[in-house]
Automatic annotation (TrEMBL):
This is DUF2291 domain-containing protein. It comes from Pyxidicoccus fallax.
Length: 449
């Protein structure tokens, strides 16, 4: 059996954890990590992704990509996974790998079971209407083996979501290459969780943090355990039906909503760095809800997700190592940092603010990021509202658009029938601030119209 990627065959089950919600540790490099326990409140409700919104987002992302003709190799480069070459013997029962000595070779003929599995895969591609090597599983070998088995099982797990992905890209110049790139990116990323002492860095770390705030800490923990089980079953499967059953079992664990988030974020990760993936997050479906749940689930602001440098799995949850510049963003109290040339200032009243700051400038108006509603002033105190970090100058045209947006009902953004302002009033100060910054960015770019 030829293995180009040795660690594909490693399966380690971390010790199971009993008890309630897993925690997130925030390591800023200064003292002991801060332990965050995800809250159970309205801000922690799952982000519901609409099918049409996700397809539109995937199509938009795909138009900017130049997919590789070797998607497995491209995914390995993206996640900085070394390509392993050489010949090995693998004993399924003992799970031991033995390198062949110089001069030794594997049998020239493929095992019959492997041949039949490959034929069944090609027949499945024909039945889906795509034909040929539709998932790009045979570009680095003549049969469905190793990582190709896992990618096939994972694609079967996605079920209808795979069809949605195809619908999003089918009218583009190279739809098969785009779909293969997304699937191999998702599969290779998932495989990072099957190695001993799993941890992700760079673009994979930002992808992990984003997935956690989309689906929640406990759901993501369950996905990791499901990935490992799917990996083990894929290694041992000898028929297409066995792979399908393994995939369908994992599909039930994942659920359609988490699968949509997984495919969407994996597509956004293609060709990205941690920083460029972070820059794409505000424009994705569900970003508004994620902005108000990031703090509740992971203890970081939504902007702070892009500043996560590594994510490691511990027995009781996850550890986020944050970039030095993300220290202030990871804490709830962000006031007092002196973000303006004149230093940080705060006022007791609206009038005092305007007297102290003067004019916003020609064609510009002062804008409260966390709105100066009666409820906010009562809940957070006037100084939290009227200060130099919460009040910024905006062009009048943009300010008018933001104000109108807050007064409107946007159920596809808020997942409610309330106005944006009414929905936002139920959130924490930091969640309102994150959403306010996101609204300015997305309205300014025309993403939220």
């Amino acid at each position: 059996m030829l293995l180009r990627w040795l660690f594909l065959l490693v399966w380690v089950v971390l010790p199971g954890c009993s008890g309630p919600t897993r925690v997130v540790r925030l390591d800023t490099g200064r003292g002991s990590p801060t332990v965050h326990v995800p809250r159970s409140d309205r801000a922690s409700e799952p982000v519901v992704l609409d099918e049409d919104d996700v397809k539109e987002a995937v199509a938009r992302l795909a138009r900017t990509l130049r997919p590789s003709q070797r998607p497995e190799e491209a995914a390995r480069r993206l996640f900085e996974v070394d390509s392993r070459s050489g010949s090995y013997l693998f004993d399924v029962r003992s799970r031991r790998i033995t390198p062949l000595r110089p001069g030794e070779h594997l049998a020239a003929e493929l095992p019959q079971a492997e041949i039949e599995l490959t034929r069944a895969y090609l027949r499945w591609c024909e039945r889906t209407g795509r034909g040929g090597d539709c998932l790009g599983l045979l570009k680095e070998g003549p049969s469905v083996t190793g990582g190709a088995r896992f990618t096939l099982a994972l694609s079967l797990a996605k079920g209808a979501v795979l069809d949605e992905l195809w619908e999003a890209v089918k009218d583009m110049a190279h739809p098969e290459a785009l779909m293969q790139a997304a699937l191999w990116t998702a599969a290779t990323y998932a495989l990072l969780w099957t190695v001993p002492e799993p941890a992700t860095k760079g673009v994979a770390a930002v992808l992990t943090a984003a997935l956690i705030v989309y689906v929640g800490v406990d759901t993501f923990w369950g996905l990791i355990q499901g990935f490992r089980q799917l990996m083990a079953e894929s290694d041992q499967a000898v028929t297409f039906d066995a792979l399908r059953e393994a995939g369908e079992r994992f599909g039930r664990v994942m659920g359609r909503n988490a699968a949509r988030a997984f495919v969407m974020l994996a597509t956004a990760a293609i060709g990205s760095t941690g920083a460029t993936l972070g820059a794409k997050l505000p424009g994705l479906p569900g970003a508004a809800q994620v902005a108000v749940r990031a703090e509740a689930q992971a203890g970081v602001t939504y902007a702070g997700v892009a500043q996560v440098e590594t994510v490691a799995v511990a027995a009781d949850g996850f550890t986020f190592a944050l970039a030095p510049g993300a220290v202030a963003m990871s804490s709830r109290g962000t006031r007092g940092g002196g973000s303006t040339p004149g230093g940080y200032q705060e006022w007791q009243t609206h009038g005092g603010l305007y007297k102290g700051r003067g004019s916003a400038g020609p064609g510009r108006e002062w804008h409260h990021i966390v709105e100066q509603t009666e409820g906010n002033v009562r809940q957070f105190g006037p100084e939290a509202i009227h200060n130099t970090e919460n009040v910024i100058a905006l062009d009048k045209a943009l300010h008018d658009l933001v104000s109108a947006f807050y007064s409107s009902k946007r159920p596809r953004i808020t997942n409610s029938n309330l106005t944006v302002r009414e929905w936002l009033s139920t959130q924490s100060y930091q969640a309102q601030r994150d959403f306010g910054l996101l609204a300015i960015e997305n309205i300014g770019k025309g993403i939220w119209r």
